[in-house]
């Protein structure tokens, strides 16, 4: 199971690294006009260099600086964009009149892209898998001196993440209020939805020298932070789970350092070529969430089974995780193909080009508005991407429990108590069904 989990992490890194590189390249392209494939090698070389030289310590220190830049630029864009429009009242009124203040649909239909169910249930489970079992996150937590520090860091992280999301939502409102009567997607001023915010930045901050550069540096900071963390974690996983078991204790420190640096360099270079694939696969946010959830949803199920269901053995858990992984991979790939080919589209809200102050191709606008159709029918490929993590975890848990009828139930006596959740430990001690069963304690060889 450990090798399977490590393999999933490596696979996730392979598909996610180019996404992390593509985002700042897309922004830089919109702001400066320099080609995406000119920028990506430069970004990767810089990130690979300081990850190789500084290790985890270097990654953490650069993350601190990058976070300050990221939040600072976010605040500047929100304030300047609001003031240019005439205040918060104007932003709110234009979004209300344009139908952008709609709440998620109150429905349990899993094919609705953003419903209350998918956002608050699927979204919570998505963040659960990305923070609780993600090697890149856990590695940072484990570098702290005590459990108390880990909890404090987790609380701070949660608050910071909520503030970041709120800031991004408000920038979306400012973006619509700015272009409510001249949609840049319809006129061709922006080639992708991911370029709308950089376009807003150039309009709002372009008159102030240095501020567009501040925004670009913020996007690069966020991307480099994710990229360096993942590269560092990837090198540690490959070393500990694939290389060291083969080499044994004979590996010298110099060999360890060389191996980790080679991993960083190899995967960094491979990301350059994977960018060509990513740019063809639709919106970056949805693509990232889809790939991450489809890969780590089954792994969340594995951890859930391990902590809460001591009667499920390793073989049953492995079968459940493999079946869930293959199922989620099939769903994710086919859903992404449907999005790229246009056979599956979500309903678009109406836009306007009635007050544009520049010339554009009207046929482009007419073609874009003619595509405002909801998908016909529904299938498993239409399931909201926010539910992928929950679906993958649920499949793992269900199939693993069913597999116990084939492989048998594991004896609870063979389970290490410290691997179980505290409330499960209490239940096993107090419930009469387990009366007399003493969980095996971990022995410490002093």
UniProtKB/TrEMBL annotation:
Keyword annotations: Cell membrane, Ion transport, Membrane, Sodium, Sodium transport, Transmembrane, Transmembrane helix, Transport
Main location: membrane
GO terms, biological process: sodium ion transport
Location of this chain's protein in the cell: Cell membrane
One Gene Ontology CC term in the entry: plasma membrane
Membrane topology: Multi-pass membrane protein
PROSITE patterns documented for this protein: NA_SOLUT_SYMP_3 (PS50283)
Keyword Cell membrane annotated: yes
Domain of life: Eukaryota
Membrane-spanning segments: 7-28, 34-56, 68-92, 112-133, 154-179, 260-278, 290-311, 318-338, 385-407
Listed InterPro entries: Na/Glc_symporter_sf, Na/solute_symporter, Sodium:Solute_Symporter_SSF
Molecular function in Gene Ontology: symporter activity
NCBIfam families, A to Z: sss
Family membership noted in the UniProt record: Belongs to the sodium:solute symporter (SSF) (TC 2.A.21) family.
Name recorded for this polypeptide: GL21805
Organism name: Drosophila persimilis
Gene symbol of the encoding locus: Dper\GL21805
């Amino acid at each position: 199971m450990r090798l399977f989990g490590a393999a999933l992490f490596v696979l996730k890194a392979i598909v996610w690294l180019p996404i992390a590189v593509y985002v700042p390249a897309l922004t830089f392209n919109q702001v400066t006009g320099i080609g995406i494939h000119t920028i990506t090698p430069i970004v990767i070389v810089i990130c690979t260099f300081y990850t190789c030289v500084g290790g985890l310590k270097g990654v953490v220190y650069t993350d601190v600086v990058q976070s300050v830049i990221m939040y600072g630029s976010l605040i500047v864009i929100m304030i300047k964009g609001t003031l240019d429009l005439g205040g918060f009242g104007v932003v709110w009124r234009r979004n209300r009149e344009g139908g952008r203040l709609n709440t998620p649909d109150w429905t349990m239909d899993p094919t609705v892209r953003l419903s209350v169910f998918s956002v608050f249930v699927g979204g919570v489970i998505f963040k659960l898998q990305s923070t609780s079992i993600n090697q890149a996150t856990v590695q940072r937590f484990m570098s702290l001196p005590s459990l108390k520090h880990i909890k404090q860091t987790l609380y701070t992280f949660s608050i910071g993440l909520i503030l970041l999301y709120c800031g991004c939502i408000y920038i979306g409102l400012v973006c619509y209020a700015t272009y409510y009567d001249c949609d840049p997607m319809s006129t061709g001023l922006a080639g992708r939805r991911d370029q709308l915010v950089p376009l807003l930045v150039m309009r709002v901050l372009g008159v102030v020298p240095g501020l567009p550069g501040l925004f670009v540096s913020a996007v690069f900071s966020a991307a480099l932070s994710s990229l360096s963390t993942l590269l560092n974690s990837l090198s540690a996983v490959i070393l500990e789970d694939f290389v060291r078991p083969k080499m044994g204790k004979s590996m010298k420190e110099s060999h360890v350092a060389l191996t980790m640096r080679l991993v960083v360099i190899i995967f960094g270079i491979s990301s350059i070529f994977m960018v060509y694939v990513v740019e063809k696969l639709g919106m970056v946010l949805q693509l990232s969430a889809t790939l991450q959830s489809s890969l780590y949803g089954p792994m969340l199920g594995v951890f859930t089974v391990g902590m809460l269901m001591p009667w499920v053995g390793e073989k049953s858990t492995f079968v459940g995780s493999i079946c869930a992984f293959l199922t989620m991979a099939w769903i994710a790939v086919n859903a992404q193909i449907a999005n790229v080919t246009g056979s599956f589209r979500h309903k678009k809200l109406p836009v306007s080009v009635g007050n544009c102050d520049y010339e554009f191709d009207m046929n482009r606008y007419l073609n874009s508005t003619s595509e405002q159709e909801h998908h016909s029918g529904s299938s498993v490929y239409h399931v909201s991407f926010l539910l992928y993590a929950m679906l993958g975890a649920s499949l793992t848990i269900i199939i693993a429990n069913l597999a116990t009828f084939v492989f048998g139930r594991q004896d609870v006596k063979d389970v290490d108590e410290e691997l179980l959740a505290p409330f499960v430990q209490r239940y096993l001690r107090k419930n009469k069904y387990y009366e007399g069963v003493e969980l095996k304690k971990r022995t410490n060889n002093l």
